[in-house]
Fold:
Amino acid sequence: MRSFTINRHYLSGMLMLFLFMLKLSGSLSAQSTDKKTVYVFDIKKEIAPPVMRETHLALQEAREINADLIIIHMNTYGGMLESADSIRTMILHNSIPVWVFIDNNAASAGALISIACDSIYMRSGANIGAATVVNASGEKQPEKYQSYMRSMMRSTAEASGRDPKIAEAMVDPRVPVPGIADSGQVITFTASEAMKYGFCEGIAESIPEVLRAAGIDNYEIVRLRLTWLDKIIGFLINPIVSGLLIMVIIGGIYFELQTPGIGFPLAASIVAALLYFAPLYLEGLAANWEILIFVIGLVLLGIEIFVIPGFGVAGISGVALIFLGLTLSLVQNFGFDFTGVNLYVIIEAFFIVITATLISLIGSFFITRKLFTTPALGHLALETVQNSSEGYTIATHEMADLTGKSGQTISILRPAGKVLIEGTVYDATAETSYIEKNENVTVVGYNNAQLVVRKG
Structure:
């Protein structure tokens, strides 16, 4: 009986040990076959709203598929500061680790985005740094821009565990970093220098090498795939395209005011406005109230031109609201809250609008003067001049006899319109300013086949 009890305990212990080893083996097997989902997207062009949009789409999709890691494949010389600021903010607040593989260049805005990432890997021969703020001509911007960029680089480096002093020296050569930046030049690191000073985790020649260097052997790469609608929206929100659309909007309004009736210029302006506001609305940049401001501005301007003669409060308010609507639609604010919006972003948006408007007005004025004087379009205009010295005249005895006659306006004279004199309708123009409809007038002369009338 005792022997049986011992054997039973022995067998029970062996069985438990066997089950434990089987469970451990299964756990190790599961760990070895655990496949990582790596989400990859590119930043290989100028940092601008389209890149900001693609980054937002990529981070959102990566979260939806529960990716384990996000890798940015980067090769850029920089771009717009506000777009780079938005991208680095998205990265810093992203719940999934974000790495960057610098394939040759991460300059200026690209350096800011890279420093925001959890890990930086670089191709041999790649560079990171040179983050001084410059304009489109490559000229250094004023100190207030440099100060803001220094602050962003410093705070970003602090958030990602890198040396903030080195990050700041990538912007300003006046920031000394002993042993690194003693020559009065902004810092730009090579791959080996970046590794030495903690701005690079490793050197690799491709994304698979990046993953191997990080000890990730079993993985699946998922890449951002843009739809045709994404590509169209990305194209339309490009600042250059937005500027061109503003030119068409303003130019269409200008040409419509120069021609009677409603025609092609107004249609072109409406289409351009739709192409301007629609993608900005879909991206959350243009809010309902910002578009409404633009529409109210157009209405006020129309009232000033067609209802209230002259140019007063309604006209000025209309122009101001049109500019305000176009400008705010380019700014990423939330409702009426502009707390997180940098002043420079608003200034740049206003600069885009005002520049496009001035170019449009100047171009429209030039076109209206030159359209019918070019050899190609000259045949559309009459070139024969009927000089009075040759006997031609538009004066008739009938119109001359109307001088001193009284009548009534049957339309508003701004300053031209229609008048009724002794039962006959004539084209007329007001001697001064304008005359309302159904006002009594007196004919004081005639000019260019039109009567000249005076109120009273």
Observations:
- The two ends are 137 Å apart (CA to CA).
